[in-house]
């Protein structure tokens, strides 16, 4: 069965984004599993207003902001995908406001009986520093995904040398990269994330044999 893996890049940058670069690597790897359609969605290309805290969604009434911006479009794409890979920069050791705004606005779908449940979720993070909040940023995304009933998964590669998420820091190359990390480890780990998310998304989409 053909499944869809959606890559969401949370960087506000429209070009030369390091997290987007890692995401592109992960999506390419996802395709190698076969019968996988991928899409790279750059949040910077969409209008995403912040949540105003009106709680309409809790009462299952329409979100007033949904009529004013592109959030419903993004959420529809998330609903249609079986796998979602979030790629985020570290901004003060967490996700940038752009991605946080999407996270908050997606509460509408949670309140509709967890419409984003069972999406297989993978994580990639780019920071400036070698130790620049990559794991705390990932942790924000993990906690978000769990709140939505999603299933968080990591890459599975060499148990000694490869990690569950693609994480990089520009400092490793003297801050000379812009958009194309020369970080072979981060690239490899991002590929592992892509493969794993596609594999699990295929598995969960398989219809039980009758
Ligand atoms: C507002 C802001 C906050 C940032 N905070 C951090 C930080 O806490 N730690 C860090 O290592 N880098 C930080 N950075 C640097 C970015 O994480 C880094 O440039 C990253 O590569 C950006 O990813 P992108 O190219 O995908 O946008 C920050 C950058 C900005 C603009």
Give a quick precis of the structure.
With 210 residues, this protein is of the alpha/beta class. It has helices at 18-31, 71-80, 97-105, 107-111, 134-147, 184-205, and strands at residues 3-9, 36-42, 83-89, 120-127, 151-152, 166-169.
Helical amount among residues, as a percent range?
Answer: 25-40%
Please provide the count of β strands.
6
% residues in beta strands: 15-25%
Distance between the termini: 16 Å
Bound molecules: flavin mononucleotide
| CATH architecture level-2 label | 3-Layer(aba) Sandwich
Provide the residue-averaged pLDDT.
95
CA radius of gyration is 17 Å
What is the 3D form? globular
Uncertain stretches of 5 or more adjacent residues = none
Number of domains: 1
The main sheet comes to: 6 strands, parallel
The CATH class is Alpha Beta
Structural class: alpha/beta
Question: What do we call the CATH topology?
Answer: Rossmann fold
The helix tally amounts to 6
CATH superfamily: Flavodoxin domain
Order of helices and strands: EHEHEHHEHEEH
Q: How does this model look, in words?
A:
The mean pLDDT is 95. It is built from six helices and six strands, in the order E-H-E-H-E-H-H-E-H-E-E-H. Helix 5 links the parallel strand 4 and strand 5. The radius of gyration is 17 Å and the shape is globular. It is α/β, with parallel strands linked by helices and 210 residues long. Strands 1, 2, 3, 4, 5 and 6 form a six-stranded parallel β-sheet that branches. 35% of the residues lie in helices and 17% in strands. It has a single domain, classed as 3-Layer(aba) Sandwich (Rossmann fold), CATH 3.40.50.360. The site of flavin mononucleotide (FMN) has 18 residues, from helix 1 and strand 4.
């Amino acid at each position: 069965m053909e499944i869809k893996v959606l890559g969401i890049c949370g960087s506000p940058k429209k070009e030369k984004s390091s997290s987007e670069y890692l995401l592109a690597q992960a999506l390419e790897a996802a395709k190698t599993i076969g019968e996988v359609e991928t899409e790279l969605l750059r949040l910077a290309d969409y209008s995403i207003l912040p949540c105003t805290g009106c709680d309409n969604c809790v009462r299952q009434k329409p979100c007033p902001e949904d009529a004013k911006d592109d959030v419903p479009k993004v959420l529809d794409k998330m609903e249609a995908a079986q796998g979602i890979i979030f790629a985020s920069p570290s901004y003060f050791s967490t996700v940038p406001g752009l991605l946080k705004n999407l996270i908050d606005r997606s509460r509408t779908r949670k309140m509709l009986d967890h419409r984003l449940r069972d999406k297989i979720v993978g994580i990639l993070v780019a920071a400036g520093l070698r130790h620049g909040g990559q794991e705390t940023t990932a942790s924000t995304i993990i906690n978000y995904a769990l709140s939505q009933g999603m299933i968080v998964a990591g890459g599975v590669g060499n148990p000694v040398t490869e990690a569950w998420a693609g994480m990089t820091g520009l400092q490793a190359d003297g801050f000379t990269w812009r958009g194309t990390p020369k970080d072979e480890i981060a690239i490899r780990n991002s590929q592992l994330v892509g493969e794993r998310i596609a594999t699990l998304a295929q598995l969960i989409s398989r219809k039980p044999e009758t």
